[in-house]
Target: 4-hydroxy-tetrahydrodipicolinate synthase
Amino acid sequence: MPLDLRFKGVGAALITPFDEQNEIDYPGLKRLIDLVTEGGSDYLVVQGTTGESPTVTSQEKLDILAFTIKNNSKSLPIVYGIGGNDTRAVLDCIKKTDLTGVDAILSVCPYYNKPTQEGIFAHFTAIADASPIPVLLYNVPGRTVVNMKPDTIIKLAAHPNIIGIKDACGSLEQTMELAARAPEDFLLLSGDDNLVTTMASVGCHGVISVIANAFPKEFGELTWHALEGRFKEAAKLQLAFLEFDTLLYIESNPVGIKKCLEIKGVCSSDVRLPLLKASKELGEKLEKAMIREGFL
Model:
């Protein structure tokens, strides 16, 4: 089976805009979709963890998905987040969700209960068996505590319905091992914006990006420079985003990127508890960095 080129390049991991009443801000979401679409993102990722999925209700998730599909003016591929640490609940969600218009599921490694590698393999095998559309794995040990190891990922890559992985393990050694061992038709996607250039240099196919929410054009240029071997140009942009990547996570994700979007006039920086809006200090640092790098 050939590499699924729909998910090569930049997938914007869409935030969820909220209004002053902490309800979904659909006009803001429309502006966001338009921004990332017109900015050149290659596909949209709906209700990943950057979309504050832990504090968005099941019905809100479905409403956001439907709204995104309706307002997807360029008919970009759509990836929808369905994951969790209760395998039966994830399977039930897949069964009950109308996935018409969705091109793949993004499913996070089970968190908190710290399964073994065998448990992770069984969890994702069950999801892939149940899903009517392709599955992208998501490895983010900084949030889930457990790292999906290369042996487990390679075993899962043999499943015909598992087409790739968003890997945010932060380990270049693991990335290189995956690049060396993964089948040619298995997508290797960075989950770390600051490592895109380096990961592309060893064979990765793109990124599911937080930064692309606010800076889709610039981050798309960075990613495609790297994917097409123009590493000098990619490195220049990568270094321009270096401070951003640090600032965005100081007060947790998506607090920082929402502040950037507020500065740009796309939507408010409101988040749902237990997260808090960006501090004044963080907002000032982000705005200064945006001005200095010419992103504002």
Summary: The chain has one domain: 7-228. The mean pLDDT is 97. The first helix runs from residue 26 to 38. Strands lie at 9-13, 43-46, 78-81, 104-108, 135-139, 162-167, 187-190, 206-209.
